[in-house]
Amino acid sequence: MQIFDASAVAQPLGDIELVDEAAGPVLRLRGEVDSAVVAIWDATERSTGRAPVAVDLSGTTFLDARGLRLVVRETESARRSGHLPELRRPSASIRRLVDLAGAGPLFATVA
Fold first, then answer.
1. 17 within a domain of the structure (yes/no)
2. What is the pLDDT of residues 49-74, one digit of tens each?
3. Structural domain tally of the chain?
4. What's this model's pTM, rounded to 2 decimal places?
5. Looking at residue 91, which CATH number applies to its domain?
6. What 3 state SS string does 3-14 have?
7. Quick check: is 54 in a domain?
8. Residue 67 and residue 1: Cα distance in Å, rounded?
9. Which domain holds residue 88?
């Protein structure tokens, strides 16, 4: 008989949160944002009724394709309303992922 040990399950190495700033909501990503972190975000009700006006990537060490898809999806409403969301302080590797995916024009990058 095999016993499941919940303590043996690896905890996600990243985090996503929505924070309010004066200009509007900001999606803040930290650590390694991969499929596991995105799945946790998607499983939790996060609706505020307002689209993020920016994505803060300053604390992000890794972003996979699913993480990028989440960033694009979460900021879509801002683009539809005529605003170009900011990508704040992406690392060179994250900026490269955004460019390779063709998502660069969807954001204003702030160094």
1. yes
2. 778 999 999 999 999 999 999 999 99
3. 1
4. 0.85
5. 3.30.750.24
6. CCCHHHCCCCCE
7. yes
8. 37
9. 12-110
